[in-house]
Amino acid sequence: MNLVCICNPNAGGGRALQALPQLKRTVKHRFVGAEFKLTSARGHGRDLARIAALDGADVVVSIGGDGTLNEVVNGLMDAA
């Protein structure tokens, strides 16, 4: 399964970035080829999600808040 996790490292006042190493270990234990992509600016999550979908990702996971989720959903819709 091709899994892509899109993470806003600034979510939760930076707590998402602090939790990322443990999250990566946990996810990659179950999904060996999982990829993690970090957003770098507003709108970047949308681009990352669109590219992931067009590249054939089976699952795209949003890690962040409402804004990150909104961007990821819109990026997936752009690819549909």
Could you explain the architecture of this structure?
- The chain has 80 residues and is an alpha/beta fold.
- The protein is built from three helices and three strands; from the N terminus they run βαβαβα.
- A three-stranded parallel beta sheet has the order 2-1-3, sandwiched between helices.
- Helix 2 runs parallel beside helix 3 (66-79).
- It is flat.
Q: Which secondary structure elements does this structure contain, and how are they paired or packed?
A:
Blueprint: E1 3-7, H1 15-30, E2 35-38, H2 44-54, E3 59-63, H3 66-79
Parallel strand pairs: 1-2, 1-3
Short recap of the structure:
With 80 residues, the protein is α/β, with parallel strands linked by helices.
